[in-house]
Amino acid sequence: MSPSKLDSTDSFGHEEASVSCSKPENGCVDSLSIFHSEKAVEELLQQTPVAGMDEHLIEFSEALRTVAKALRRAAEGKASAQAEAAEWKRRYELERTRNIQMERKVSGNNNCEMLQHWWIRSSLDNAMDMLRIMLPCLLFWEVGKEQNKRIAEARMAEQFSAEKNGDIDCERVKNSDNQSMLQNESNEYSETGCMKHGIWSHEVLRDRESDSNSNADRNKIMRKASFKLSWWCNGENGDQHKHDIVSFERGNITTAERSSKQISLKWESDPQTVLILTKPNSVSVRILCVQMVRWLRERKKLNVYVEPRVKVELVAESSNFSYVQTWKDDSEISHLHMKVDLVITLGGDGTVLWAASMFKGPVPPIVPFSLGSLGFMTPFHSEHFKDCLDSVLRGPISITLRHRLLCRVVRDAAKNEYETEEPFLVLNEVTIDRGISSYLTNLECYCDNSFVTCVQGDGLILSTTSGSTAYSLAAGGSMVHPQVPGILFTPICPHSLSFRPLILPEHVTVRIMVPFNSRSPAWASFDGKDRKLLAAGDALLCSMAPWPVPTACQVDSTNDFLRSIHDGLHWNLRKTQSFDGPRDRDL
Fold first, then answer.
1. Mind listing the pLDDT tens digit for each residue in 254-296?
2. I need a labelling partner for 21 at 20 to 30 A (CA). Which of 85, 163, 226, 303 fits?
3. What's 466's DSSP letter?
4. Does 335 share its domain with 428?
5. Spans of biased composition, class Polar residues (predicted)?
6. pLDDT per position as a tens digit, 390-409
């Protein structure tokens, strides 16, 4: 290499270094300058050295390498600063929202204090004037009360004498009947649940009259069956029998108070309408559905609802199934809980998940028949469906309240955490993974306002206790009784030896956020479907939903759970140790 070339290379390196370092912006270096400077360093280092190269050129190349590392650190610092600024912005918006709410509360309290001061400042003369006005009114009221008492006593005496002579006071009977009718009408007022994004958010939903747009052949009012739930231990006659939790009017269940004890359902009125959901593309399920629909209609005189697909199959089988009812669009599905008293599923756990996803609010009791593979949530066998449905319709039966998660996606552009997309209700789990990206997923996790950890791995699973035997189990999570209220926090292949799964209480809100320095976005799936992209700055909020999924038990929730892990997973199945062999000597 000639000296001229070395000089040109030397000047080129100094020029690039001066360009990259001459224009800093707010303490950070431009990314284009970093790219050119690193490229110049790589070209210089790849050149073949000559035999008589001076030592100062070697030192110069080392200096350029140091400068390139410093520029790379500056770029990483810039990205970190941007992420921190975004986090402080989010905290500022939350604090601002809280301050506005506090100001509204304080303004309301100030009005109350002003009224109190005004009352204290009022003079004694004004109080005496008020007493002068009120005393005559009280006097007249006492006099009128005494006169009404005397008139009532006189009427009672007349009625007593009339009844003694054999005459019946028909007018009194009519008045009492009219009063009872008015009271019943006032008690049966309709409370419309506020549906936001298709999720019912009211605490109690009552039955409503059919819409004016309904078909003429369905004008008959169908009343939902009401029932009571109670919790108990050691049987119905045990010493620990508890009082009724609440009478669930019109057959709607809400978790006003959760309990890990056994829960029993007792019908207060006979069920009238049944919804049957089936697994598609199964010949055995189709045959069983035909038998069950015919038996429920002919023997039990029940109204039967099925999916539109199933009704087409039934009508093609025989024209006698014209009495089977169905729905036309999704708007009718959102009001199914007002018509259906009982849901019957013919399939596996996936059919139960599909049945739960149809109800965005209260879910009717579900009777799941096992026609799938494992069946952790399907304890009933199809061979004895008549006996099973007889006992369920007669009652009382044990049920398991399977809690669901309410999941909301908050985008980075949202002003606060209340500006969310359409929420999702999941019965098993919500999964946040890296999708098709080859990089590790990077997730920041918060529990309420407390930082939990930063997940670096394939992803994270937030599961219900009912989903503890699903994906969470495959990722190393614990198996939890479905009646235990809680949220399972299970990592997927974490790049850490000390990252163990957690079980969080039911009352917390878990927030999963994709940081700004993440190399790739994340993907969220809800019960294995409805995948959503989570870009940098987006967050996923998960909390316990107020509407559980009640599933009927063959024996009770504990017996069904233990039998499912024994039969489905062969839990702790091992050969018994041989009786023959060496033993410990008697001490």
1. 654 444 468 889 898 899 999 999 999 889 999 999 999 999 9
2. 85
3. G
4. no
5. 1-11
6. 999 998 899 999 999 999 99
